[in-house]
Write a structure and sequence with these properties.
The chain has 21 helices and no strands. By secondary structure, it is mainly alpha-helical. The protein has 3 domains: about 1-200, Up-down Bundle (Growth Hormone, Chain: A); about 205-260; about 265-510, Up-down Bundle (Growth Hormone, Chain: A), CATH 1.20.1250.
Length: about 500
């Protein structure tokens, strides 16, 4: 059992239920805030009198600060204690959320989102650690499954909730709703865990490592969030950010491996299961999150869906995940976790290839069905892979391991957003060019289509515009099919990679 619980029995009954609810809601709140602003950017930018590009800075600021702070979780927990850091993080998150909702200018909102992201960094990793430390050892897999469920489901429901609030209330309420949720999580954590603080030590501050981490990850995250808008490396700004990130992160790795008290414990990668688990987690989150990003874009551009209905298209994935995650957590000890992960990745791959066959006439249920089936794979992927990541690690390294694993999860999601939107755009341009070659003037199909448009009363210019729109829509559909084919292949690679992990997979076991 962890240092926090030495001399203390694991929580039982109502106390355990209350802790689970409080910590899960804090996790849900933090992860939700990554995606809830996305669909509200247009409204926020218009309300504050700025362009959409300036509005996206509110997203970038949060992601950037959160990504920088996540790897620091282990150091902060060792220095100040896991319960104190988590409680302080939740309290400051509540305050920053209120300040975001009260912002009257875009610079104010960006600054407060930056602070909100910074204080949120330790929340998700430490929520996992606190659950594991205070659950009975035999029920820790269930704790992991409940935690995993909130982390994966929150980004799916974020756009729906954000769109609904923005459409029916003022956009500031996407921040104000954090206040009651955060207060409940803070109260539960303080009351139940105030006497269960983890052991602390005055660890020296690795100033150089902290600087390299902040600059490197900050530049990388900003580059990923804005690269597509600036046409990537054709922009001097994006190129400069990429070079700075490369240099800083390269030096960071070398420095941390040699430093006696590293701010980021890269030595965790010496554990075979941690390295394999983080690699498969990153692959899975890359392909999963990329599909969650590109599908709503396509249905709005081609199918004419509203932002809210685009959210409903991806939402069915959460239904099986909510039902199955606790069951997988309860019974995964009876199976080889690699088999469960392989099954989850196989479901993801099959559904990705299924979605690669979408056409412009697809109904809502045709679009939602593969997402519903894909939800079966979430529990079989995310729950066991987190158990594999922590297998064999001593309890005093769980916070560091969770922070580093969540950092790679966050970066994988950011890279997925950048890559999927760029690939979707470029493949759309390619398919448009190929399709346009078959619509040259005088071609029988082109003449027949234009004649049909003119018989419907459209002039020559309007007929050509209608034809171009058809080509655009078809090109976008072919592009989204290409993207899902790529994601299906990535899931297939993960099916193989997970078998490099080695049992036993119990927490605190050898597993190296």
């Amino acid at each position: 059992m962890a240092e926090a619980a030495k001399g203390k029995q694991p929580l039982q009954g109502a106390a355990l239920v209350a802790l689970t609810a409080g910590v899960a809601l804090a996790t849900f709140m933090e992860v939700l805030d990554i995606s809830i602003v996305n669909v509200s950017v247009y409204t926020i930018a218009g309300n504050l009198g700025v362009s959409r590009t300036e509005g996206t800075m509110a997203i970038s600021a949060y992601s950037m600060a959160s990504a920088v702070m996540q790897p620091l979780t282990g150091w902060l927990a060792r220095r100040f204690g896991e319960v104190r850091v988590f409680s302080a993080s939740v309290l400051l998150f509540i305050i920053c959320s209120a300040l975001c909702g009260l912002s009257t200018t875009m610079p104010m909102l960006i600054v407060f989102r930056l602070l909100q992201g910074a204080v949120s960094g330790p929340m998700v990793p430490l929520s996992q650690t606190l659950l594991l430390n205070n659950y009975p050892p035999a029920r820790r897999p269930i704790a992991l499954s409940l935690w995993a469920m909130t982390v994966v489901v929150a980004p799916v429901f974020g756009p729906i909730l954000g769109g609904w609030i923005t459409d029916n209330y003022h956009w500031s309420w996407i921040f104000f709703i954090n206040i009651p949720v955060g207060l409940f999580a803070l109260l539960v954590t303080y009351v139940l865990l105030k006497d269960r603080e983890s052991k602390t030590a005055k660890v020296p501050v690795d100033v150089i490592g902290l600087f390299l981490l902040a600059v490197g990850i900050g530049c990388l995250q900003f580059m990923l969030d804005n690269g597509n808008d600036y046409d990537w490396f054709s922009s001097k700004m994006i190129l400069s950010l990429g070079l700075i990130a490369l240099v800083c992160l390269t030096f960071l790795i070398a420095w941390e491996l040699m430093h006696e008290h590293p701010v980021v414990n890269l030595g965790l990668f010496r554990s075979r299961n941690f390295a394999v688990g983080v690699f498969c987690l990153s692959l899975g989150m890359f392909a999963f999150f990329g599909g969650t990003v590109v599908l709503p874009t396509w249905v709005q551009e081609v199918m004419g869906y509203t932002a809210t209905w685009a959210g409903f298209t991806v939402a069915p994935i959460g239904i099986p995940a909510i039902i199955l995650s606790p069951l997988v957590g309860a019974f995964q000890g009876k199976f080889d976790l690699r088999v469960l992960n392989t099954t989850g990745f196989a479901i993801f791959a099959a559904c990705s290839f299924w979605m690669a066959g979408f056409d412009n006439d697809a109904s809502y249920w045709h679009l939602a069905a593969p997402r519903l089936v894909m939800g079966l794979g979430i529990a079989l992927f995310f729950v066991p892979v987190n158990q594999i990541i922590l297998a064999g690690l001593p309890d005093n390294e769980v916070a560091s391991a969770s922070g580093l694993a969540n950092f790679f999860r966050t970066i994988a999601s950011s890279v997925a957003t950048a890559v999927s939107t760029t690939l979707y755009t470029h493949r759309g341009i390619y398919h448009h060019a190929v399709l346009a070659e078959h619509t040259e003037a005088g071609a029988p199909a082109t003449v027949a289509y234009l004649d049909r448009m003119q018989q419907m009363g459209l002039g020559s210019g309007s007929s050509y515009a209608a034809l171009n729109r058809v080509v655009d829509m078809q090109a976008s559909t072919l592009a989204v099919n290409d993207v899902f084919w790529c994601f299906g292949l990535i899931f297939a690679v993960a099916m193989i990679a997970i078998w490099f992990a080695r049992p036993p997979f119990a927490s605190g076991g050898p597993g190296h």
